[in-house]
Amino acid sequence: MKTIVHLLRHGEVHNPQGVLYGRLPGYHLSDDGRLMADAAAKWFAGRDITVLYSSPMERAQETAAPIAATLGLPIGTDERLIEAANHFEGHTFGVGDGSLRRPEHWPFLWNPFRPSWGEPYEEIARRMLAAMADIREAAAGHEAVCVSHQLPIWVTRRKIEGRRLWHNPARRQCGLASVTSITYDDGRVVKVDYAEPAGELSRRPSVPGA
Fold first, then answer.
1. 3 state DSSP class of 202
2. SS3 (DSSP) at 137
3. Which N-terminal residues, if any, form the signal peptide (predicted)?
4. What is the pLDDT of residues 65-87, one digit of tens each?
């Protein structure tokens, strides 16, 4: 029995200050972000989607909304799909004028493999895979959409593919409003696919931290 779980990253966020917003409330989709969500909804239209879940963050819920309207599905909220916790929430992050210049932040940078500045990669993958297992069961024989965030999606994909979880963030294949699709055959992963329904929009210059 084939079941597909699609991991959809949310669209672009309105973030003119360019901070790492993480789990902070009040960060919503930008105008382009709403267009990206619409593009994702069109991409899913006609597919055999029977279950739709989202992270509780506003940007994820807003990305899920046009999918729910297009497919006539309710949006379930699963806390396990949430963004990774990060010490630098609310700060800019960089060598120039960012948090790296402030000594009080340096103790959080000692171990990039865990990482020491936030939720461990292994814990992110564990909670994401647990959520996906429950959602896969709910959509057995059909398809499901899970709206989440870049780091949780990318780490989960690396875990599924048997790769090390620490990585170069600049090399993540997880663009805005992108879809990472995991195909299962009786619970066993048989294929991982990637698509960018809003590719043209996501390649426009965007606000930092989107």
1. helix
2. helix
3. none
4. 999 999 999 999 999 999 998 76
- Pick the more confident residue, 43 or 210: 43
Q: Name the nearest CA neighbour of 132 among 3, 46, 36.
A: 3
CATH of 2-84+120-202, one of 3.40.50.720, 3.40.50.1240, 3.40.50.2300, 2.60.120.40: 3.40.50.1240
Give CA–CA dist 210/205, Å, rounded: 10
Token reading at 182: 């995991």
Domain ranges of the chain: 2-84+120-202
Confidence of residue 98 (pLDDT cuts 50, 70, 90): low
Q: Going by DSSP bridges, is the β-strand pair 143-148/49-54 parallel, antiparallel, or unpaired? A: parallel
